[in-house]
Amino acid sequence: MSIKILYEDSNILAINKPSGILVHPVPEQVQYGAGPDKKTIKDIFTKKYKKIEIVHRLDKETSGVMLLAKNKKAHEFLKNQFKNRTIKKTYYAIVSGWVKNDHDTINKPIGRSPSDFRRRLAGRGARGELREAITEYKVLRRFTISGNKFSYLEIYPKTGRTHQIRVHMKYINHPVVCDSLYNPNGPCPKGLNRLALHAKSIEFKNPKGKIKKIESPLPPEFKKTCPALNF
């Protein structure tokens, strides 16, 4: 599998992760495989970069920009930025329905689902430790396809909880489309056969103190689904 490198220096890689591949091995991997080639991002890049470290993760079906550290020092440097919430992340998503507010902030702790170990839950019924989760968003466009309403959002997660965007969108009754875990029965636009969530950009400080903003192009399947989104 060929994965595009969006940025590289002596310490850091930024890649354009495809949808459908895991970042690193997880317990569920035996059950459903790691991706089309049964490999993970970690596997692929360790071949060339022996000391590569995973800094953060994207869900298997999420695409877009992702950072990798080429050594332990860079790994700690970037992890501290994530911990201190100084890294700025922007996602694009297509969600079910027309989101009412043009922009808003979802501030709702996330715990575990009582009925499905794979899922997380915000609001009533969440189990285990409830962890702070904050997601900001703005509506870029509302549109209709085959009688079904959708909204195109730009999303800014301020925390980094597992499935955070997917869980928060579900919480406000506008789940991400084509999400088999959180929106299994919702309408999925023709031609879009993957989770409609894409990590558009990430802004961080490199070890030399320079601010870097790396962007990933919008996936072709997003543009094909609705040409009006091509902006």
Q: What does the model show?
A:
Strands 1, 2, 3, 4, 5, 6, 10, 11, 12 and 13 form a ten-stranded mixed beta sheet that branches. A three-stranded antiparallel beta sheet has the order 8-7-9. The chain has five helices and 13 strands. 16% of the residues lie in helices and 35% in strands. The two termini are 28 Å apart. The model has no long low-confidence stretch (mean pLDDT 91). The radius of gyration is 17 Å and the shape is globular. The chain has a single domain (5-229), classed as Pseudouridine synthase, CATH 3.30.2350.10.
CATH topology: Pseudouridine synthase
CATH superfamily caption: Pseudouridine synthase
Distance between the termini: 28 Å
Structural Rg = 17 Å
Q: Provide the β-strand percentage band.
A: 25-35%
Give the total of beta strands. 13
Number of alpha- plus pi-helical segments: 5
The oligomeric state of the chains shown is single chain
Order of helices and strands: EEHHEEHEEEEEEEHEEH
Tally of distinct domains:
1
Mean pLDDT metric: 91
